[in-house]
Every structure is written in structure tokens, then in C-alpha cells.
Amino acid sequence: MLHSNSIGFQTFSYARHLCNSCTRILGLESTPKIIQYNDEEVMLEIIPIGIDVDSLLARKLLPDVKEKEESILRLYKGKKIIFGKDKLDIVNGILQKLNAFEQFLNFYPEWRDKVVLIQVVIPGNSNQPKLESKVSEKITSINSKFGSLEFSPVHFYRSFLEQDLYIALMKIADLGLITVVRDGMNTSSLEYIVCQEKNKNPLILSEFTGTAGSISGAIQINPWNTDDVAHQIKNCLIMDEYEKANRHSTMYNFVRSHNSEFWANSFINAINTNCTTQSERHSIPLLDTITISESYKNSKKRLILLDYDGTLVPITNIPANAIPSSKTIESLTLLCQDPKNAVWVISGRDSEFLNKHLGSIKGLGLSAEHGGFVRHPYRDWESLVDQLDLSWKAQIKKIFDFFTERTSGSFVEEKVAAITWHYRNANQDYAMFQCNQCLSHLESAIASSLPVEILVGKKCLEVRPKEVNKGEIVSRLLESSLNVGLDFLFVAGDDRTDEDMFITARNYVNSIIKDESNEQSPELNHKQPQKSSSVDISNATKDILISSPNLSNQSLDFDGVTDQLKHLDCFTVIVGNRNKKSNAFWNVPTSYNITDLIQVLSKIN
Predict the structure, then answer these.
(1) At what angle do helices 289-298 and 591-602 cross, to 10 degrees?
(2) Taking the model in full, what pTM does it have?
(3) Across residues 219-226, what is the average pLDDT?
């Protein structure tokens, strides 16, 4: 499975189970959308299956269906009909359905001779004589207790129904009842909704079906709660027409739009998109110092965005010891003195640390805690998290403290808007095991219910608000009026937290291309990639140049580009292993290469 580009699931819970298994058993990093495996990204897609709605709508109008419909109505004249169809399998909840129906007749004796349950059972995947015996005994018990010689409240059919009869039963039913205790996508519920296009009668649906998360108009129940199901049966039988119509409209619109064709197209599009994205991210080339130096020299307005740990300074076992060298300080100072430059350090560190080691550099912009706090050049720090609810931190800290006590050498770093568990100084084999256990616990028990994001960093786990990430602060800087006319953009980072910056930079460049091409010309002439590793949009005198070897190197010609967007060189650089997956377009091996590079750039006049 993990050698696939994409893995599709009917429900989110199934995808989550795979993520947890990969984290616990294989020690892989994962998110709800991605599993990292052998430097590859396996994309997880949640695409619930649909049905052929048009075919079913046409079938239910056939004369044979109409004839069977009238026959059933004559047979059960004056009775409310509850319909269910299930395989004879323990997970399909047939016993739970019968127990709930029996309880309904106990609770509401006035309904005993006015309602009938038609239960169709088709053979399961395996022979289950014990289950069949229990079902038969329960039906006999209900019919003997509440029935008579003339009437049986439960009508039980052990066979496959011909399609026309099945459709007719769904059309005339007053209530659909599905009580499975474990299921994927229950297409019977979708078929019932389509067949009820005219009558709009309600559907009781087990919360354990895959469709429960999509069909919001259904009455959702826990099939193990017999009393509640019994009460819901009564409520549905007396439901007013207005509520019926509203609920059915919600369900029908979803089933109509998410049909089998939509499912197939969604899956194919997901596969194509993921394959294209992954192929673009292979083989990150080493950054060409000559190319970037020439671009820097010829530019007139530059934005330089740098990560701290692993980019400006090497990773150290003790975070407090990761301080910038005098060479780095000198180079940053010279860069900031150039009026053409806007230089920012965007770090996960707290503001106190950045102030201490970089705050003396005049003209340098600082962003702490992944964009939660910002200090513009020559200004004081401002918080972007004051309005956020951070009450979750206490809960996360308890979890991190639990693993810290059991992992010698690890420690917790608590920031204003985030909290991090470091295990760099612990025994790495055991620490990785503990990290996987902690990550799995956070993903399954905490993250889904809290407004937080879990980041797997270098020998650390961090939990931060979803609203705070490096991409957001980069977006703010790019959209700032101070950067109008930007013609040089340099972004460098080393880990997953920096991917947000790379993605934002790429999207910014793509938006410029899209906006300009849409406004100036409806037709773009695509040419073959050139060796120059660039994308040109130009007429005789104007172009937008994007220095990125993996971004569709092509020339796109049109008339008239605004003077404001004459030229933009964008360099996104990942520090470290060039074979790891990244949204960056260039690579340098170590943080020392970044230090050398900014020194070279700082000396260009």
C-alpha cells in the first residue's frame, strides 16, 4: 500500500486507522492527508462512493415497479411500513434492529397493529447458522407477542429480491431503518433516498455507517442504544411533512451531486494531481551561486526570508547553544544596510531568544513562534495570537510531561502560543518509539477535537494553533504594500515547518502569472523547457522570470505586462538532504552553505 501514490478511503476513520498503524508499527511520520515513506509522500484521499442516480431514477418509473408498488400497498393497506435490507452478517445489526422494533412496540402499544417491519436478508459472505437461528427466534418472539392469526408485525424474507420489487419496497416505505454496527459505505441508504424522491419519508441511519458523516438529513442513532432507536422510530412515523421535506432535500442533493461518476472522477483527478505533484518534487538541484548572485545584483527590490535553526545556525543538542556566528551577524547586518533589501528571520523560537541574539541588527525583521509574534524593523514586538484560545496548552503539556517522565533526556519547551517536546538528547531508538506513541495519541485523542496542528520537527514534536504558521507571515509580507515591485525573493529553511513558506512563495509567483495572463491575454503559447531554469512571460521588453528548475520551464507570450511586475526571481531553498521531499526548488547541503551565500550576497554592490 505504501508504494502507492494515492490510497483512497470511503471514510476518514479508516484513513486515520492506517495513519495510526504506520506511526505505531513502522515509526512513520503522517498527517491526516499524507504518510511519509522512504522519502516519498503517500497521499490519503477520502472519497465516499456514490450510486448511479440517473439509472435508478429511470428504473423506478418502469411499469413493472409501479405494478409491484400497488400490490404491496394493497397487501399492507392501512399499515405504516418500515423497510430494511441487510446481509446476514453480525456486523449488519439485524438483531439490534429487531430488539429496537420490539422495544418500540413495548413503549408504544397504540402502534402494535398499525406498523409492519419488512426485513429482507440476503446471504452473507460466510455461513452463520448461529446468527440465523437467533434472528429467527427473535422474529418468532416478536410475532407471537404482538401479532395475531391475521397479522404479523415482522415480515422476514431470506433471499435476494428482484430489482423491481426492491425498488418498489423502498418507494412505498414510510421509514428506512439501517442499524449496522460496523460498515463502510452503505449504498442501501443512498438508494432509499433516491427512491423517496416523491414521498420524502425519513431515514434512520446508524452512526457507524460510512455514509453517516455525509447524509446530514438522516436521523442518526447508535444501534446499541435500543431505547433511543425505539423512540426515534416513533418520532419518524409522526414526523410532519415540512420536516420530512427539509431533511430529504438535504440528503437528496448530496446523493445527486456525489454520484458514482463524481466518485470515479474525483479518484482519477486525485491520482493525476498527486502523481504530477510528486514528479515535480523529485531531484532537487543544488543552488547555483552564480545564478543567484547575478539575479541579486540585477534586482532593485528584494525580500529575503530565512529560517533560524538548521538554516542560519546548525542544529545543536542543546537548543540554547544554537547561536549565530559573528560571520552570520556581520552578513545579516550588511544585507539590512542595503536599502534595496527587506530581510526577515522567521523562526519557531520565542521572541526573547531572537531578541537576544538578533535584536541588535538594525533593519532586520523578526518573526517568532512560527509567525505568532512579529517585530517589524525599528518597531516593537506585536502579538498575532492575543485573540486565540490557548487553553488547550495545559492539556497538551500534561501529555508531554507524561512522556518526558518516561523518556530520559527529553524536555518540554513551553512558548506563548505553542508547546514543544524535545528528545534530541535521549536514547534515539527509545525516543523515536516514544515519539511515535505520543504522536499517535495526539492525533487520535486530542488533535481532532482541538484547534491545533501537530508538527514533527527534527527530534521534536510541536503543537501550535492552526491559525499560526510560517506561511501566514510570509503571505502577509508578500502582500504588504512595502513589497510592491518586488523583483527578487529568497526563502530558505530546513524542515517541515518551512514547507509552508515554500508553498506560499510558489503560490504567490503562480498568482502573478495567472493574474497577468488572465488580464492581458486569454491565450498562452507554451514552449519547451529551456536550460535556463526559468519561466518567462514577456513581450519585447517585459517579463516575469521565476528561477525554479522544477516549475514548468516555459515561455508564455502576451501583449503588455504592467510596469510594476517587470521581473521577479524566486529562489526557494531547502537545507539538508537533497533527496528528501520538499516544495523548495533548490537545495544546499548544510547551514554553513547558507552562511557563505548570504556573505557573498552581502558584498555585492
Answers:
(1) 40
(2) 0.56
(3) 95
